Automatic annotation (TrEMBL):
Naturally occurring in which organism (per UniProt): Knipowitschia caucasica
InterPro entries per the UniProt record, alphabetical: Alkaline_phosphatase_core_sf, Sulfatase, Sulfatase_CS, Sulfatase_N
Top-level taxon: Eukaryota
Cofactor list: Ca(2+)
Residues covered by region (Disordered): 493-575
Similarity remark: Belongs to the sulfatase family.
Pfam families, per the entry: Sulfatase, Sulfatase_C
Cellular component terms per the entry's GO annotation: lysosome
UniProt entry tagged with the keyword Cell membrane: no
Annotated protein name in UniProt: Arylsulfatase G
Keywords: Calcium, Disulfide bond, Glycoprotein, Hydrolase, Lysosome, Metal-binding, Signal
Signal peptide from the UniProt entry: 1-27
PANTHER family documented for this protein: ARYLSULFATASE FAMILY MEMBER, ARYLSULFATASE G
Coiled coil: none
């Protein structure tokens, strides 16, 4: 009987599967990668025990309930630029060259010899849009529209790297851009940028400077929805890389009443969650993988304006002084809230404890799109398709965390993960709330923690124990293998971190000659006018260029863009 049914059904089932397969290959899936800035593992309610949840992330909780929540997912670095570079290239900073942050006046960015996954998707026919924080070089040819995005809207770096007219919540509180009689204020609190208005860039044009922090979420949301709707109408597969300004200071949640400082972070988190919800709704029914993650842990020195590490306290470090989140390789710096949602493809209400990294997004997204990255280089990302779609628990055998400013050389892989174990060859702290900094320490033999039993990293294993010996042997072999692999990689890039005052994105104020404000200290902002400081690309060429500079220098394997001068690098008049 079964045989008869089998014989009758087989051809039609086969045809069905074949048709589905043909459809699949004809229409590639869409991707929305949402990268939150400085978010803490404990900021996502779904990561916490029900009794300590604060109900700030209902949309993300819902996505987790309808999708997959990762419990051992890590940012590739614990500061912005290296984390983002590794996510986009699938390579450690030791290979892609980006080991620390770029500045407002950085001449260059992610080496041009590097290949980003948006670039590869774009070549495969995707509409590729990016909204938000780039932080991988704002001057041509390093800007997003030259690195794989057909559309870009956002702040070219962090939202605290420029002044605004109505500052958000930050610590210290930064004053507004001061244009009083064309002068800018000389001394302001540490960490406040006052010379350059925070720019909003669309494609390659400054469209607002300084931008309005308080409407930025709405601006980002409208642009994101436009891109999603446009791509859906056109039938073109799309990638949206949404690099949120949230939860990085200054926080500027819109609220009907002024907020007391202790309520600001929660309000900003709710605002971010609302934006995620809007993206999810816009993509409903469009065969879209939505992958939410973070670029590094909370910026603890911002005190009440920083996120929560949840149970990942880094207690060993705390007892020695300093903070144990952003910039460090403690769990608080690297373990980030991560949710993948793809109705019909990812099983609902599942969690995965697979050890994974943001670099794996590179390999997984490309595999799902059927795109093979160039074979002339080595990658550190692994294809996690089976973890997403088949519930496989096999994550990475090893994951290494680079130093991101808390200890040793930038980019050095001094912390290793394998299974439930973590080995520190070097430890270091970031600045804590209150200013304490701690100090770096070399560990030979390494410090080893069993995260399965000790998630707060309190008590290292006894170096005499057999367990320790076994772990250290395995970790050290894995690490040496990787370092050898990098040393023999013929396509390693070096980033140019040189700076030049004229490299800052700057819409010079009309009527204010550079000379009157000091040679390199004019306040960069859009001219006031009918549009209230909104300068469109059509407003004409920038004036008052000053300071010729050498053109961007490339990594040793990168092509040179040739000499360019000052502000014209942004090419405000075109695109
Ligand atoms: C999700 O899974 C958990 C644990 O397996 C279960 O207790 C809960 O009822 C599930 N929720 C839904 C909405 O299916
Ligand atoms: C700026 O754009 C114009 C018009 O497309 C082009 O002729 C010029 O070479 C560009 N300049 C730079 C510095 O890219
Ligand atoms: C940016 O590019 C998009 C798509 O090419 C275009 O529709 C839009 O007008 C551009 N915006 C600016 C300010 O150039
Ligand atoms: Ca960050």
């Amino acid at each position: 009987m079964a045989d008869v049914i089998g014989t009758l059904l087989l051809p039609s089932v086969f045809l069905c599967v074949l048709l589905m397969h043909l459809q699949d290959t004809a229409k590639k899936p869409n991707f929305i990668i949402i990268l939150a800035d400085d978010i803490g593992w404990g900021d996502l309610d779904a990561n916490l025990n029900p009794e300590v949840r604060k109900n700030n992330t209902p949309n993300l909780n819902w996505m987790a309930q309808q999708g997959l929540r990762f419990t051992d997912f890590h940012s590739p670095a614990s500061t912005c630029s290296p984390s983002r570079a590794a996510l986009l290239t699938g390579r450690y900073g030791l290979r892609n060259g980006v080991t620390h942050n770029f500045a407002v006046n950085s001449v260059a960015g992610l080496p041009l010899s590097e290949v980003t996954f948006p670039q590869l998707l774009q070549a495969a026919g995707y509409h590729t849009a990016m909204i938000g924080k780039w932080h991988l070089g704002h001057n041509r040819p390093y800007s997003p529209t030259n690195r794989g995005f057909s559309y870009y809207l956002g702040v070219p770096y962090s939202n605290d790297m420029g002044c605004t007219d109505s500052p958000g919540y930050d610590l210290p509180h930064c004053p507004p851009c001061d244009t009083h009689r064309g002068q800018y204020r000389l001394s302001e609190g540490r960490g406040c940028f006052h010379k350059v208005g925070l720019p909003l860039i669309e494609n390659s044009s400054i469209v607002q400077q300084p931008l309005d922090l308080w409407t930025l979420t709405q601006t980002y949301q409208s642009a994101a929805l436009d891109n999603i709707h446009h791509a859906r109408r056109s039938g073109q597969p799309f990638l949206l890389y949404m690099a949120l300004a949230h939860m990085h200071v200054p926080l500027a949640p819109r609220h009907s009443r002024p907020l007391t400082p202790d309520r600001v972070y929660a309000a900003a988190l709710q605002e971010m969650d609302g934006l995620v919800g809007a993206l999810t709704s816009a993509a409903e029914g469009s065969d879209t993988l939505i992958w939410f993650t973070g670029d590094n842990g909370p910026w603890e020195q911002k005190c009440q304006f920083a996120g929560s590490v949840g149970p990942f306290k880094g207690t060993w470090q705390l007892t020695k002084g300093g903070g144990s989140a952003k910039r460090t390789t403690w769990e608080g710096g690297h373990r980030v809230p991560t949710v993948a949602y793809w109705p019909g493809k990812i099983s609902p209400n599942t969690t995965s404890s697979a050890l994974m990294s943001g670099m794996d997004i590179f390999s997984t997204v490309l595999a799902l799109a059927g795109v093979t990255p160039p074979s002339d280089r080595r990658y550190d990302g692994t294809d996690a398709t089976d973890v997403l779609l088949k519930g496989a628990e096999t994550g990475r055998e090893f994951l290494f965390h680079p130093n991101s400013g808390a200890a040793g050389q930038y980019g050095d892989l001094q912390t290793a993960r394998s299974g439930k174990y973590k080995a520190f060859y070097m430890t270091g702290a970031a600045e804590a709330c209150g200013g304490e900094t701690g100090s770096a320490e070399l560990h030979d033999p390494p410090l080893v923690f069993d995260l399965g039993a000790d998630e707060e990293e309190r008590s290292p294993l006894d170096p005499e124990s057999a367990e320790y010996q076994d772990v250290v042997h395995r970790m050290s072999c894995g690490r040496e293998q990787l370092l050898w692999d990098i040393a023999t990689d013929t396509s390693v890039s070096t980033a140019d971190y040189s700076t030049d005052p004229s490299a800052a994105p700057c819409w010079p104020q009309r009527g204010l000659s550079r000379a009157s404000a000091g040679p390199q200290q004019g306040l960069c902002r859009a001219s006031a006018g009918p549009q209230q400081g909104l300068c469109r690309a059509s407003a004409g060429p920038p004036q008052g260029l000053n300071g010729a500079s050498a053109g961007p220098q490339q990594g040793r394997s990168g092509a040179s863009a040739g000499p360019q001068r000052g502000l014209s690098r942004l090419n405000i008049t075109s695109e």
